[in-house]
Amino acid sequence: MIADIIGLVLKNFPFTALILGIVAALVSIAIRKPSSGREVADRLVAGYLFFAIGLGYAYNFVVHSFFAESTAKFIGWANSPFQYEVAYASLGFAIAGFYSYRKSFQARMVAILGPSFFLWGAAAGHIYFIITTENTAPGNAGSVLYSDIILPIIGFVFLFFSRERDQKPGKAQP
């Protein structure tokens, strides 16, 4: 039973990391009462950046680099050098997530933009291979596909509500 739970957590790590980020934000909210809705959203986006982006992509780096063969099989692919390209892109996104979680709105936006377009591109690829090759492997057609679509939306929603209300488009914020 414990092995099944660990397997579920690891095979669905994007959602696991998102849940960890939300739980961390809620604990922070419970301990240090926020004075505004924007402050609540700020803590949610910080949790999202640290856990869903930082920790999630650090995990992605590890599985695509050190466990490339089993990760490729999980996705329904043959292993290839492309695994390492995904690994190093993931490492870059992880660093951006860890760096930006306590930074400005602009830094946070950049740290969400890159991974979001990466995920949406991956989702398009998953859908393409579901249609053209009938690849229904869990890493292609399972929760990974859903997380590729949903996680960026959640990140942008948190980011939107964390912005300063009087901020004008294009106006720099410290």
Give a written overview of the molecule.
This protein has helices at 2-11, 13-31, 37-65, 68-75, 82-100, 105-133, 138-141, 143-162. The protein is mainly alpha-helical. It has one domain (2-162). Helix 2 (13-31) runs antiparallel to helix 3 (37-65) and helix 3 (37-65) runs antiparallel to helix 5. It is globular, with a radius of gyration of 17 Å.
Descriptive key words:
174 residues, mainly alpha, 0% strand, globular
Task: Please outline the helices and strands.
Layout: H1 2-11, H2 13-31, H3 37-65, H4 68-75, H5 82-100, H6 105-133, H7 138-141, H8 143-162
Helix pairs in contact: 2-3, 3-5, 3-6, 3-8, 5-6, 6-8
Would you report the number of β strands?
A: 0
Tally of separate helices: 8
The string of secondary-structure elements, in order, is HHHHHHHH
Supply the helix-strand structural class: mainly alpha
Rg result: 17 Å
Estimate percent helicity: over 70%
Q: Summary?
A:
By secondary structure, the chain is mainly α.
